[in-house]
Design brief:
- The structure is a homodimer of 413-residue chains.
- By secondary structure, chain A is α+β, with helices and mostly antiparallel strands.
- Chain A has two domains: 268 residues, L-amino peptidase D-ALA esterase/amidase, CATH 3.60.70; 125 residues, ArgJ beta chain, C-terminal domain (Ubiquitin-like (UB roll), Roll).
- The first copy, chain A, has twelve helices and 19 strands.
- In chain A, the strands form four sheets. In chain A, strands 12-19-14-18-15-16-17 form a seven-stranded mixed beta sheet, with helices on both faces. In chain A, strands 3-13-11-8-7 form a five-stranded mixed beta sheet, sandwiched between helices.
- In chain A, helix 1 crosses helix 2, helix 6 crosses helix 7 and helix 8 packs across helix 10.
- The longest helix of chain A is centred in the middle third of the chain and has 23 residues.
- About 1% of the residues of chain A have low confidence.
- At the A-B interface, helix 2, helix 9, helix 10, strand 17 and helix 12 of A face helix 2, helix 8, helix 9, strand 17 and helix 11 of B.
């Protein structure tokens, strides 16, 4: 069961002007479930994306990168679950392109204005015929308030959908942002991938959108980890239709830009944290906050060292304030010249915070009972002060439970 | 239960001329167990060591580094279990020095000719009085064939001791090497550390010994992982007493040097692999062999990426030939410009080997039943050909089981 993750409520998911979504049953891998999502974008929509750095990147990721390099606007996204179309060589790229062709023909748009996304089992070929046969049904289902259906249709082994909306004012116009994501490990039992889609009717020029997608990803999807495994299919795209009528955002500065950026980061963090809250076997949601570092890179390096340590993660599963493991993970993060005599570490639950380590060891005033009390919370904050600079970074992760092993040791179904 | 790890047999552990070992009950943390080991070295003995890179390195590691910087020979090692003396600040260093002083006085040797080692619980102070009170008993117990007792006395939560011997001829003289190690995760439930001790009566000049300890560690203790956690106390020392009467090894070249190096690497690999075989909750012993890389560094990077992946480790626990996870871990290792179309991957059990991946995906001739058959073995070899150079590296690891979580989620006893 996810850690403090509210279910989406259909009428709280706001339509984004210029975006219509439709779902259908294609039977990609199993019958009787909606496994195909079509997203149609109004003329003039702009899209920017960030994708997995995995050398074994999936065929749809290759095609997305290629199509996003075109100069014209994007018109459609096609998303299937069941099969990830990863580790499928040249045939995989061909299959992914064929699904784009089918969408292009159906909607009357250029083939390179279509972006494909796949998630599911690796090393299996996409059944393109079944997928394209279901496209007309997905087209018929297209509607502006299709987010609720779509966030269900992109799930694989997520235990619940993740979708939410935000609104803000730009130049006197209401701008809406709605986003959805899926993924519960970076890679599930042989099921690949995190996918994230955020659409807004704000008018954002392409260079600004390209910068925003990286910034937003850095502070959200690139700041989480369940098991440290980076999937072959990870993709996050940011869509701006411009249909709100709000004035264009042309520079990465100014009040409107800052407000929009903050809303996007807020929404993306909600989605990203939602994936951790729904992480495989998760029973705790942990925020690893590293402060007063020399630069953001070293703060992230230490945060990930703590967040990836199986020993820290199993201790948190056991609600054990095991300081030794946390200090140890800070110490082996590979950051040069750390002065452990100056480092301070706190454990908190959002209500209270306990100083647990200072001067190279346990804090003088620390009482085990205080640590134990804080660790009982399902939401735990590990805060570390490096005392060597002004930079900070936060990484969100979950604990490591019996269920993580159970889920991942189960033979592929 | 360890994976294919033979128990030491007392009369197969060969004494090393110039080395005497004694154990005693100091009651460092618990009563009724031998937790103190004293090793006395003959005059003229030389020692070289490699230690943890963890910024929170333990007090005895700091003292060891300091004492090894002296010009004279080493005369004694003192090892305690129960408490790691890590995360203990200035008081920890003082305590470690005090135990060296007590040994120095007892044996009549200089204090900086004594090397201290501790392993056990982190963040607790060493009870120096109890430790020094037991030193006379350890001294009375000193004997040349004390390896069997010592390899038991340095254990913490290891399920069995690791100790073995080798012999070779140098200049017509028989040279003996005996070594022991402890550790079953890089760090156990709050129990720190891997310790490794190898002694030989070969005559090895200090510069050669200094180079050898790094080489040997690189090919053994630095090529294993259980959970990726690098402890605060990890230490490996190589002792050369010179008491065999064999001619001195003065250069890192020549037939004698090569034979000695090979024997040391062989013994150290046996000890290092023994720690993996006795890894927390281990049911499989896995060798990750990366070949035809550009350099050893990138081969190790990929090998560790596979060896650390919780998804690969849980799949191996399940005897599941889950190729997607292996390819994925190769792909996200962070090695630039990997051409996945050229990479080939085999799974083997030491008797047969099955080509499972090529051309960016599943091998054309691969049958799942072949993979399943190989994966049933408790000894599994993952071999990867990167097809881009002449370098190679091997990393040894174990699987991730329910018992790993159980062992590490148990509250500190």
């Amino acid at each position: 069961m996810p850690v403090n993750l509210p279910l989406p409520v259909a009428d709280q998911l706001l339509p984004v002007a210029g975006v219509r979504l439709g779902t259908a049953e294609a039977g990609v891998r199993k019958q009787g479930r909606r496994d195909l999502t079509l997203i149609e974008l109004a003329t003039g929509s702009r899209v920017a994306g960030v994708f997995t750095q995995n050398a074994y990147c999936a065929a749809p990721v290759r095609v997305c990168r290629q199509h996003l390099a075109r100069s014209g606007g994007m018109r459609a996204l096609v998303i299937n679950t069941g099969i990830a179309n990863a580790g499928t060589g040249a045939q995989g790229v061909e299959n992914s392109l064929q699904s784009c062709h089918a969408v292009a023909e159906l909607l009357g748009v250029p083939v390179d204005a279509v972006l494909p996304f796949s998630t599911g089992v690796i090393l299996e070929h996409l059944p393109v015929e079944r997928l394209t046969a279901a496209l007309p049904a997905a087209k018929s289902a297209l509607k502006a308030d299709g987010w609720f259906d779509a966030c269900h249709a992109i799930m694989t082994t997520d235990t619940q959908p993740k979708c939410t909306s935000r609104q803000l004012q730009i130049g006197g116009k209401t701008v809406t942002i709605t986003g959805m994501s899926k993924g519960a490990g970076m890679i599930r039992p042989n099921m690949a991938t995190m996918l994230g889609f955020i659409a807004t009717d704000a008018n954002i020029e392409q260079p600004v959108l390209d910068a925003l997608v990286k910034d937003v990803a850095d502070e959200s999807f690139n700041s989480i980890t369940v098991d440290g495994d980076t999937s072959t299919n990870d993709s996050f795209v940011l869509i701006a239709t411009g249909a709100s009528g709000a004035p264009a955002i042309t520079l990465c500065e100014g009040v409107d830009y800052q407000a929009l950026r903050a809303a996007l980061v807020d929404l993306a963090q909600w989605l990203a944290q939602g994936m951790v809250r729904d992480g495989e076997g998760a029973t705790k949601f942990m925020s690893i906050v590293i402060e007063s570092g020399k630069d953001r890179a070293e703060c992230r390096q230490i945060a990930y060292s703590v967040a990836h340590s199986p020993l820290v993660k199993t201790a948190f599963f056991a609600s054990d304030p095991n300081l030794g493991r946390i200090l140890c993970a800070i110490g082996y993060a590979g950051v040069a010249d750390l002065d452990v005599d100056k480092i301070r570490v706190w454990l908190g639950d959002g209500k209270e915070e306990v100083l647990v380590a200072e001067k190279g060891g346990r804090a003088a005033a620390y009482l085990e009972e205080d640590g134990v009390r804080v660790m009982k919370s399902p939401e735990i904050i590990v805060r570390v002060d490096l005392a060597r600079g002004q930079a900070a970074a936060t990484v969100w992760t979950c604990d490591f439970s019996y269920d993580y092993v159970k889920i991942n040791a189960d033979y592929r179904s």
